[in-house]
């Protein structure tokens, strides 16, 4: 059995109330696309699973720069947009 940290337990209970698919591209959709490629719902889940406070982002664009997958391999992303128009509808937007 894993030891449970009380502070981390409170954060781990955040669950989305609803979900819908993105209709058009935006900065938020771009970052969600990157989290979902790496196997997470969004930034909230990533921070819960990886127990990190900050996600590394490109200062110029604010897009996610690097994510660690659950199997501990890393995904590295470009400064530019990576989520193409044809991929936008696959991105899930979670509402808390």
UniProtKB/TrEMBL annotation:
Q: Which domain of life is it from?
A: Eukaryota
Cited InterPro entries:
Meiosis-expressed_gene_1
A GO cellular component annotation here is:
nucleus
Classification via Pfam families: Meiosis_expr (PF15163)
Q: Which family does it belong to?
A: Belongs to the MEIG1 family.
The protein's job, in short, is:
Essential for spermiogenesis.
Protein name as catalogued? MEIG1 protein
The record's gene field reads: Meig1
